[in-house]
Amino acid sequence: xxxxxxxxxxxxxACFRIWENGKATVMTDPYTHSDLGMEDDGVIFEAETVIxxxxxxxxxxxxxxxGPNATVINALDVSxxxxxxxxxxxxxxxxxxxxxxxxxTGPDDNGMYAFxxxxxxxxxxxxxxxxxxxxxxxxxxxxxxxxxxITGEVFSLTLEELDPIIxxxxxxxxxxxxxxxxxxxxxxxxxxKFLNRRSESPVLIVNDTKIGLPLFGNGAEIKAGEPTIxxxxxxxxxLDKKQVTYDY
Length: 248
Prior knowledge:
Blueprint: E1 6-12, E2 15-20, E3 23-28, E4 49-52, E5 71-74, H1 75-79, E6 86-87, E7 90-91, E8 93-98, E9 109-117, E10 120-124, H2 134-137, E11 146-150, H3 159-169, E12 173-177, H4 191-197, E13 203-205, E14 210-212, E15 228-231, H5 235-238
Parallel strand pairs: 3-4, 4-5, 10-11, 11-12, 12-15, 13-15
Antiparallel strand pairs: 1-2, 1-14, 2-3, 6-7, 8-9, 9-10
């Protein structure tokens, strides 16, 4: 693999891995299989650092998926000043939020978080369940090249509430997550709902679980004022050896 490479891999649900120079450096919000109605295949997706949006949400806190040697960062603790964390010499920038008021086990507190890797800022929306003001989002201004965005609606923020976040932060890329891909997330919206709503944005549907960044040379379109939406296949689902269906 060439030097100075940056890649993003979609594991599934709200979980991604960031690869730098061939090493998995950061994992976000790893899920617990049983909480999504899936069988645990025992596969470990190793990473040097794993960030969880809360320590109590089974769909977002399974840091063991990153292996026994991963450094664990609790974004909620960072967001409320109970902890500090940095990645690649840059501080993790976390914002305190809560789950949807109708969440069956909540609404619990959690933290959205941004971190820098390979020269780009990645902003993960955590388990945000409500609209959020521009004032609350201010710490992320200039720190959102790549937005990892919930698009499944159920027990989280709505697509209508997501739109102003995208428009305010102006990311270069949006990677959808937390949507319905059988066998997980049964009640959530399929990805097609988000893609249809953001019909003015260029869309890159990737027949793979990983893609290099920046996207030049990967077939991505660039449109002034609009982010490029990139849809990856979930690696965790692909390894489950079950029929995986996608609604594009």
